[in-house]
Design brief:
Helix content: 10-25%
Shape: globular
CATH topology of the largest domain: outer membrane lipoprotein receptor (LolB), chain A
Radius of gyration: 22 Å
CATH architecture of the largest domain: Clam
CATH class of the largest domain: Mainly Beta
Number of domains: 2
Order of helices and strands: HHEEEEEEHEEHEEE
Strand content: over 45%
Number of helices: 4
């Protein structure tokens, strides 16, 4: 009986030591993370990547009613891009290779091919075809390290901030009070998830929630448009 009590006591002491050690480790590690530097390095690493895969979900909240704007899955390299999903409930699939675009007509189920069309430069489908365009900043305000969370199996820093100005013309033109949140992989400072929330400039009570999850940074990605 006394031996069992002894084992229990030892187990409790070991558990307490581990909890305290974990807390000290987190505190010391958190002190080494400067939020603004973390944001800048993470964005730079993402923009320099040879390619990546992603999912984009964007919802409107209009007077308390939720409406899905974008729900797509895509992939992108330095030269090509492809995404597939729905925009306002309408099926859409697009390839972009150089200045040639391929758009699947949801009615005829045939591909419409246009030459001399650069969707990036025209700011068309920017949230869907180039999700990182929503996270290129010209200034960062009030960055805060919120703690850690897991995205999939990866342990990430969670950092929240605002921006004085964003390069996305759509966000900058129509939305205000934009708040960003990044989930940054602690290994290599890789962006695993990003969220932007905002209020419409012209329609009080209308809010936007944009969430992008990233995978396969710098892995080989082959984008093959239809023949």
């Amino acid at each position: 009986m006394e031996m069992r009590r002894g084992f229990r006591l030892i187990a409790l002491i070991c558990t307490a030591v581990l909890l305290v050690a974990g807390g000290i480790y987190y505190y010391i590690t958190a002190l080494k993370v400067e939020p603004e530097q973390l944001i800048r390095e993470t964005v730079q690493n993402a923009l320099q990547a040879r390619g990546y895969r992603y999912t984009v979900t964007a919802d409107f909240n209009i007077a308390g009613k939720k409406q899905t704007w974008i729900k797509v899955r895509g992939e992108r390299t330095s030269a090509d891009a492809h995404f597939k999903g729905t925009i306002l409930g309408t099926p859409v699939e697009i390839y972009q290779t150089g200045t040639r675009s391929y758009t699947l007509d949801p009615v005829s189920n045939k591909w419409i091919i246009l030459d001399g069309t650069d969707l990036d430069r025209q700011q068309l489908y920017m949230a869907e075809i180039d999700p990182l365009s929503n996270f290129r900043f010209k200034g960062i305000d009030t960055p805060r390290l919120l703690g850690t969370e897991k995205v999939g199996r990866r342990k990430c820093w969670v950092v929240e901030f605002r921006s004085r100005k964003v390069e996305s013309k759509v966000l900058d033109m129509y939305w205000k009070n934009i708040t960003y949140r990044f989930w940054v992989d602690k290994r290599g400072r890789i962006l695993r998830k990003a969220m932007a929330t905002a209020e419409n400039k012209n329609s009080p009570g209308t809010f936007l929630s944009l969430i992008v999850e990233f995978q396969d940074f710098n892995k080989r990605i082959d984008i093959n448009p239809p023949q």
